[in-house]
UniProtKB/TrEMBL annotation:
Keyword Thylakoid: no
Annotated InterPro entries: Inosine/uridine_hydrolase_dom (IPR001910), IUNH (IPR023186), Ribo_hydro-like (IPR036452)
Protein name in the entry: Nucleoside hydrolase
GO cellular component entries: cytosol
UniProt entry keywords in alphabetical sequence: Glycosidase, Hydrolase
GO biological process, one term: purine nucleoside catabolic process
Inosine/uridine-preferring nucleoside hydrolase domain residues: 6-309
Keyword Iron appears in the UniProt entry: no
Length: 321
């Protein structure tokens, strides 16, 4: 497989960091840049974390700072009880070497990079979708120039689960529902990797310990960064392990055959008690639905080969691909 050019739009975030290590070590991914966004922590914290992660795992790859708040709403509070006070599970963050901070805002970095590589760039977006919506607003013509947009976000109820922040909404979509509805309506190929598959994919405590023992410095980092996150899962969901959210979006890029998908346009509710809910009209559904019918199809992940996903991550971290 030839290398896939990727811009990683991220709000690190413990699972964002685990997904960055995955991309850094997989030989089929060429990271062109990281773009930060508010979400798991403030934009100052997520940008600092993105620079730390890029500097450590993909030296030479730049970071561009993105949105501090959603398009139309106030910035949310940092999720310290999930991702730690520093957004990275309270691990020590060394001061150097940090990745260079690109002078452009994230959405301009995305536009310029897509235009420099037409048809080649995959956007992996694992935070609120504000930077992508700003890129579309600034330069709508980039949409058909993007190879694909792979998003961790949303939930479509296959296990009866529609959200992890409210009964109806997943965190990244609720982070900026207006942006998400714009992104799902743009003429670029979108794949959505939501809670339907990310909450089925669990890294157990034994699995993480094995990465620690067999994965060298990267495995040790994945272990260290996930201690606080694992405690959160045990406390909140009585889970002896962690859900695999953002690394599932990376897996979809590398091995889409591991996912069972459904095609059809997706809308996001932007107000009311179910704000942030994602609703797909399956393309097989015959009844008219004007609020969906004028929009492009998205690919929604409904099921996943869990052992296949976990094996791909493990082999990447342990260098046994
Ligand atoms: C998503 O929300 C964030 O807290 C995680 O980093 C992940 O991207 C899961 O709902
Ligand atoms: Ca994230």
């Amino acid at each position: 497989m030839s290398k896939q050019k990727v811009i990683y739009d991220t709000d690190p975030g413990v699972d964002d960091a685990m997904a960055l290590v995955f991309q850094a070590l997989h030989p089929d991914i060429e990271l062109l840049g990281l773009t930060s966004v508010f979400g798991n922590a403030t934009i100052e914290t997520t940008t600092r974390n993105a620079r730390f992660l890029a500097g450590r795992f993909v030296p030479g790859v730049p970071v561009a700072q993105g949105a501090a708040a959603p398009l139309k709403r106030a910035a949310p509070e940092p999720l310290a009880w999930i991702h730690g006070d520093n957004g990275l599970g309270n691990i020590a963050i060394e001061a150097a070497p940090e990745a260079a901070l690109d002078a452009r805002p994230a959405h301009r970095f995305i536009i310029d990079t897509v235009r420099a590589h037409p048809g080649e760039v995959t956007l992996i977006a694992v935070g609120p979708l504000t930077n992508l919506a700003l890129a579309l607003a600034d330069d709508p013509q980039i949409a058909p120039l993007v190879k694909q947009v792979v998003i961790m976000g949303g939930a479509f109820g296959t296990d009866g689960v529609l959200g992890n922040v409210t009964p109806a909404a997943e965190a990244n979509i609720l982070g900026d529902p207006d942006a998400a509805d714009i992104v799902f309506g743009a003429p670029w190929p979108v794949a959505i990797v939501g809670l339907d598959v990310t909450q089925r994919t669990i890294m157990s405590q034994d699995y993480l310990a094995s990465l620690r023992d067999r994965g060298g410095a990267a495995g040790r980092f994945v272990w260290d960064v996930s201690r606080h996150y694992e405690a959160f899962h045990e406390q909140s969901a009585q889970l002896k392990g962690i859900y695999v959210h953002d690394s599932s979006a990376v897996t979809y890029v590398l091995a889409p055959h591991l996912y069972t998908t459904r095609s059809g346009p997706v809308r996001v509710l932007t107000d009311g008690i179910a704000v942030g809910q994602t609703i797909q009209k399956p393309s097989t559904m015959p009844v008219p639905a004007p609020d969906w019918d004028s929009r492009p199809d998205s690919t929604v992940c409904l099921d996943v080969d869990v052992p296949g996903m976990l094996a791909l991550y493990e082999r990447t971290i342990c260098g046994t691909l």
